[in-house]
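User: Can you help me understand a structure? I only have the sequence.
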Amino acid sequence: MEIFGIPLQAFLGQLLLGLVSGAFYAMLSLGLAVIFGLLGIINFAHGVLYMMGAYASWILLDSFGVNYWFALILAPLVVGILGVVIERLFLRHLYKLDPLYGLLLTFGLALIIEGVFRYEYGVSGQSYPTPDLLAGATNLGFMVLPNYRAWVVVASLAVCFAVWFLIERTRLGAYLRAGTENAPLVQAFGVNVPVLVMLTYGGGAALAALAGVLAAPVINITPLMGENIIIVVFAVVVIGGMGSIIGSVVSGLVLGVIEGLTRVFYPEASNVVIFVVMVIVLVLRPAGLFGKET
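Assistant: Let's start by predicting it. Here is the structure, written out as tokens:
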């Protein structure tokens, strides 16, 4: 059986691989959306935080013998603490200024951190072994799916849902959203808004690091891995709507699938199809698919 002249097996295989890519896009864009939506900071350092999460998992294994499952907790925690330090030292001075200042600052920090890692580890990259529990593959009939990639999709969707629920359906999330809208009023009720803001940026950094840990067994860990994906992730966030959590998750998954299917029907366009979609969305709806018109 064929679909538009493409064997069904190849079509379904690329559809599933596109969903795996979409899961990474969703995880990375989630952290960006949280930071911009709640703090108004265009965090260009998100790519290096993702890279640092992957390197943290590799260092924990190579130097301390810490396995993958503990790295899923420890690496985001370490990078999240670094995010708190960045917010306290630099970003807290920029909240009342134009978002361009935050973009320039985080871009500069990204260049510095990437340069340090390139000096220390070079650009050849490191490999991270697939955990034994997730080794092997499952025959789905139309393709053989590595078990680890299936785990990435499930874990990414679970984390995305948990973050959405925390921010949109809990009292803490309500405090976060209210504190960014009217900080003096919320502080009058005894809520420590600066601490909430600090933890928000730290949480966004931890989400980027978690995506890096999930990516470590799949890709080659290099200082440039964040640079190679951050532009695509920004496009995903813009398409979903800047600051929209549900928009980032949905657009990340959908665009991953679109990218995967493009590799089947027109491989030459697979590297630019996301940006073509972004242009179309911005022309028709400048605020993004789930963004609010202002």
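Now, to help you interpret it: The mean pLDDT is 89. Residues 21-124+131-223 form one domain. Let me know which part you'd like to focus on.
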